[in-house]
From TrEMBL:
UniProtKB keywords: Amino-acid biosynthesis, Aromatic amino acid biosynthesis, Oxidoreductase
Molecular function (Gene Ontology), one example: shikimate 3-dehydrogenase (NADP+) activity
One of the GO biological process terms: shikimate metabolic process
Listed pathway(s): Metabolic intermediate biosynthesis; chorismate biosynthesis; chorismate from D-erythrose 4-phosphate and phosphoenolpyruvate: step 4/7
Entry's Gene Ontology cellular component terms: cytosol
Alphabetized InterPro entries for the sequence: Aminoacid_DH-like_N_sf, NAD(P)-bd_dom_sf, Shikimate_DH-bd_N, Shikimate_DH_fam
The protein, known as: Shikimate dehydrogenase
Chain segments annotated as coiled-coil in the UniProt record: none
Species per Swiss-Prot/TrEMBL record: Mangrovibacterium diazotrophicum
Gene3D superfamilies: Leucine Dehydrogenase, chain A, domain 1, NAD(P)-binding Rossmann-like Domain
Superkingdom assignment: Bacteria
Domain Shikimate dehydrogenase substrate binding N-terminal: 6-88
Length: 249
């Protein structure tokens, strides 16, 4: 049996478990399983190998994307730059087990956002400053877009603004708006980031990392102004496909 799994805190429904369980069934991979490993603290991480000697690959979600790094033997260059891990490759040899960390969110976000962009999209507004924004900033920089982040934190860091500063003039410049917060996630679908949606236009691109519901209030409000919108589901599919490649390369 080959066991793949997700490391997290309180997982409940997990996209990864659903995606890979369906994949294994469709491809008749009967000796494969995908399980959720709920850890109360990251210190419990080494223990999963003691109980499961046939782990073949792992995904990692919040709050452990950064906390897992000291437990790894090697970290991919891009993942090290972003400072977050969501995929762990298990390398077995006569010398023992080696763990290498990757970040496939980078691949997923880039390949989901890129088709939406054109020459006019030179600046992006990121809503939120949490862990998810790290991969976003890396990709925006790679694609040549400058960015600012809207923050609710008491202290602003460099490149951050208050939500109150988002006005018509700013939105005329920042034609890409990315929701990197959980606002609008089911069941609280009536929530969305507090920005002046009335100043959005058909030149704008709105990308929401939330994927449940399929169309968030953030997306609906953008769509009503003619903006192009996309949710985070394609990004999740792409990062999962990339993780599978990494585990099997």
């Amino acid at each position: 049996m080959k066991t793949y799994g997700l490391i997290g805190y309180r997982l409940g429904y997990s996209f990864s478990k659903g995606f890979f369980t369906e994949k294994f069934e469709k491809e008749n991979l009967q000796e494969h399983e995908y399980v959720n490993f709920e850890l109360d603290t990251i210190d419990e991480f080494p223990g999963i190998f003691e109980k499961n000697d046939h782990i073949a690959g792992l995904n990692c979600t919040i709050p452990y994307k950064q906390q897992i790094m000291p437990f790894l033997d090697e970290i991919d260059e891009e993942a090290a730059t972003v400072g977050a891990i969501n995929t762990v490759k298990i390398i077995r040899s006569e010398a023992g087990v080696k763990l290498k960390g990757f970040n496939t969110d980078i691949y997923g976000f880039e390949n989901s956002l890129k088709p939406m962009l054109s020459e006019k999209h030179k600046k992006a507004l990121i809503l939120g400053t949490g862990g998810a924004s790290k991969a976003i900033k890396y990709i925006l920089k790679k694609l040549g877009l400058s960015y600012v982040s809207a923050s609710i934190e008491e202290t602003l860091n460099e490149g951050e603004i208050r939500y109150e500063e988002i006005n018509e003039d700013l939105l005329k410049e920042y034609l890409v708006v990315i929701n990197a917060t959980p606002l609008g996630t089911f069941p609280k679908v009536e929530n969305c980031a507090n920005i002046p949606y009335e100043f959005l236009t058909s030149d704008h691109v709105l990308f929401d990392l939330v994927y449940n519901p399929e169309e968030t209030l953030f997306m609906k409000k953008g769509k009503a102004q003619g903006a192009a919108v996309k949710n985070g589901l394609e990004m999740l599919h792409l990062q999962a496909i990339k993780a599978w490649e990494i585990w099997n390369m």
